[in-house]
Design a protein that fits this description.
This protein has 426 residues and is of the alpha/beta class. It is built from 18 helices and 6 strands.
């Protein structure tokens, strides 16, 4: 594995070249990476915190093996769901995979939407980011308002959880406003909870990210399209996951003894919400209703849209590593993007293609048109609608496999009934 400040070189004596493709959930990173890998004789290194887990396929949106077209994929299916996997482990594993790919004479193509992972992969430094001035002021004003209103601590914890940090609040001493403010700053700046930083080895979660020393020749791209379009994609993806096996995978996590939000795997958005829903179905008579399912689906979609927003926020903050990313309009034809990236890789000293100069256009999300679209945005389900066959099948599966838990006297009896239900449904 490469150490910081030590240059890694390829066989020609130059720094090893690495392609990084980032972007929000649902924008098409995997599709572009696969096509580019075929063009450049590349290998894909996943920078996804959930795809590392075996058996968690649907909820992590893994590219199925039979669709990888023979392209090697690294850091997928490497640990069991019962194990924690931190950004520190990712750094070590991703750097080792990069060295392996370069040694083979292939092109490492790192793909992911977790800005924190990608920053540490590039810089080799780990530490929670400082808040921008805007975030610092916004957090101060919001916390001061809650304090003045009286009884604001509980409201502040809810605000922290709604922002995406579900783990820090319960660990704080009551009225520890300093650490609560810092947790809010971290989640609003990075899109990651404070716990993601504190679990890193030799990492002070309140320290700022240090300066970078590039030991690879990074070619970095950020795929983007209007948020209103991304939201439609994400909402549909959530429906597809719920239809294609997310609930089954969440049920397996519960069966293994895991609780929601108890480790890295059960903390990810889709799995945590699905596990909580299924636990309620197992424990509460009559919980497997159409109304409760739609509540789960709505939460899943809303949290996923918020995650997209946090991903975009991270890259707009423009840290030292983020400044290296060329923003690409992902609505362009795939062939156009692949050609542009391949030419830029093969002839890096030439003028950058117009395809790679989209930032000045696509990052103006404060435009009147886009803001109006976001204000008017409403989820429109396309798979799960009232009385749809997909809804009926899913609810029946829940009643046949989850509600049995309340009445089964033995595990063997439960297993037999579940197998019988599965055989009947087939």
């Amino acid at each position: 594995m490469a150490e910081d400040n030590v240059e890694d070189t390829d066989v020609r004596g130059r720094k090893g070249r690495v392609v990084i493709i980032a972007g929000p959930t649902g924008v098409g990173k995997s599709r572009l990476a696969l096509a580019l890998a075929k063009r450049l004789r590349g290998e894909i290194i996943s920078a996804d915190s959930v795809q590392v887990y075996r058996t968690l396929d649907v909820g992590s949106a893994k590219t199925p093996v039979d669709e990888r077209e023979g392209i090697p994929h690294h850091l997928i299916d490497i640990v069991d769901p019962s194990q924690d996997y931190t950004a520190g482990y990712f750094y070590d594993d991703a750097r080792a995979a990069t060295e392996l790919v370069l040694t083979k004479g292939s092109v490492p193509i790192v793909v992911g939407g977790t800005g924190m992972y990608l920053r540490w992969y590039m810089t080799g430094k780990v530490g929670a980011p400082k808040a921008t001035k805007e975030v610092f002021v916004a957090v101060e004003e919001e916390v001061d308002r809650l304090i003045k209103e009286g009884g604001g601590w509980d409201d502040a914890l809810r605000m922290l959880a709604d922002a995406g940090d579900l783990t820090t609040g319960p660990s704080l001493a009551r009225n520890d406003w300093y650490r609560l403010r810092r947790a809010l700053e971290i989640i609003k700046t990075s899109g990651q909870p404070r716990s993601a930083f504190s679990k890193l080895r030799n990492c002070d979660p309140d320290a700022a990210t240090e300066g970078a020393s590039w030991d690879y020749d990074f070619h970095c791209y950020f795929l983007y399209q209007p948020r209103s379009e991304l939201y439609q994609k994400v909402d549909l993806r959530c429906e597809q996951m719920a239809q294609e096996g997310l609930l089954d995978e969440a049920s397996s996590l519960l069966d293994s003894g895991l609780q929601p939000n108890s480790n890295s795997a059960s903390r990810s958005i889709g799995y945590q919400l699905a596990m909580e829903f299924l636990m309620e179905c197992r424990q509460v008579e009559g919980a497997a209703t159409e109304e409760r399912f739609f509540l789960f689906l709505e939460e899943f979609q809303r949290h996923s849209r918020n995650y997209v927003k946090r991903q975009l926020t991270w890259f707009r903050n423009k840290g030292q590593s983020e400044q290296m990313f060329n923003w690409i309009d992902a609505t362009q034809p795939l062939e156009v993007m692949v050609d542009a990236l391949a030419k830029e890789y093969e002839r890096p000293n030439e003028v950058v293609s117009d395809v790679l100069k989209a930032a000045s256009v696509v990052t103006k999300e404060s435009s009147y048109k886009e803001e109006n679209l976001l204000k008017r945005y409403r989820t429109q389900n396309r798979i799960f609608t009232s009385n749809s066959e997909a809804l009926k099948r899913t609810l029946q599966w829940i009643r046949d496999t989850q509600c049995l838990w309340r009445n089964s006297s033995t595990v063997d009896d439960l297993q037999k009934r579940m197998e019988s239900s599965l055989t009947t449904s087939m």
